[in-house]
Amino acid sequence: MNPTAARGPVPRLPDVRPSALARIARLDLTLLWRNRTALFTVAGLPLLFGALLLPARGKRMDGLDAALMQGTGHLAFFLIFAVFMNLVNVFTARREDLTLKRLRGTSLSDAEILCGSVLTSLVLYLAQAAALLVLLMTVLGGGPPANLPLMLAGMVGGAVVFALLGFVFAGITPNSDMAQLTVLPVMFGCMAGAGVMFPLAALPGWAQQAAHWLPLSPVVEIVRTGYLGRDFHAATTHETVGFAGAWAVTAPSFAVLAVWTALGVYAARRWFRWEPRRG
């Protein structure tokens, strides 16, 4: 007996064609341009948050420059706008107007339909992050990142998590009118508890421990460590770390991202919908 046959066929990853991803991306960008509310959420709000960093120059937060502290937090927080909120709006609207159902009737695979929109959101996010990074390095005097590969790893890992959460919340959102409301608990929870607007040290001890498990918290910790070269998993010390040491101190943050990824995959498979709700 053939051992391979006894074990069954080797599972294959779904085929994803670059041309198909480009078609979905073109559709996404066209619809985004036509929807002024969604366009402001994706592009306008990050510009506003970037402008708010200018008055913080020279002030101190948790012993460090306040503008750099908040700016590195915004590098992670932009995931909420460009990836999470954008995908919830996109998939909810397309499900309700039967666009998703019609797309499934074409030559596009399910993976191409989903990955095309995720890729568009990722590109939008990285463009926002690049613009903010230039602002941090030049106008705000932060200089180049201490560990750019670490920053990129955290940002991409965060994009995966928030894309999965986008699938989940699109599935539980009843219609496109509610899409702007169902995302608010995640946005405000991450803003208040992930160390974006103020350091986690300002929270009580029990709240600090709980805050580390928010989906945005590990991204903030990784991005800040990668840019500033300090340990931001420990809420109070922020000791300087080297290139290799930065990867070591962020290992718990990557572990939290892995947990959220696993939960996101499970929840997305269970609750994401391709067709409108009935009743």
What would you say this structure looks like, in words?
- The chain has 279 residues and is an all-alpha fold.
- The protein has one domain.
- It has 13 helices and two strands.
- The chain has helices spanning 3-7, 18-34, 36-51, 66-96, 99-104, 110-137, 148-172, 179-182, 184-193, 205-211, 217-228, 243-249, 251-271; strands at 60-61, 64-65.
- It has a two-stranded antiparallel sheet with strand order 1-2.
- The N and C termini lie far apart (53 Å).
- 41% of the residues are buried.
Structural class category: mainly alpha
| Portion in helices | 55-70%
Mean pLDDT: 85
Number of helices, counting only DSSP H or I runs of 4 residues or more: 13
Strand line-up of the largest beta sheet: 1-2
Number of strands: 2
| CA radius of gyration | 20 Å
Tell me what portion of residues adopts beta-strand conformation: under 5%
Domain ABC transmembrane type-2: 29-275
Protein name: Transport permease protein
Keywords: Antibiotic resistance, Cell membrane, Membrane, Transmembrane, Transmembrane helix, Transport
InterPro entries: ABC2_TM, ABC2_TM_bact-type, ABC_2_transport, Nod_factor_ABC_transporter
Key descriptive features of the protein:
ABC-type transporter activity, disordered N terminus, 279 residues, two-stranded antiparallel ribbon, transmembrane helix, mainly alpha
Brief overview:
This protein is 68% helix and 1% strand. The protein has helices at residues 3-7, 18-34, 36-51, 66-96, 99-104, 110-137, 148-172, 179-182, 184-193, 205-211, 217-228, 243-249, 251-271; strands at 60-61, 64-65.
List the helices and strands and how they pair.
Elements: H1 3-7, H2 18-34, H3 36-51, E1 60-61, E2 64-65, H4 66-96, H5 99-104, H6 110-137, H7 148-172, H8 179-182, H9 184-193, H10 205-211, H11 217-228, H12 243-249, H13 251-271
Antiparallel strand pairs: 1-2
Protein name: Transport permease protein
Subcellular location: Cell membrane; Membrane
Membrane topology: Multi-pass membrane protein
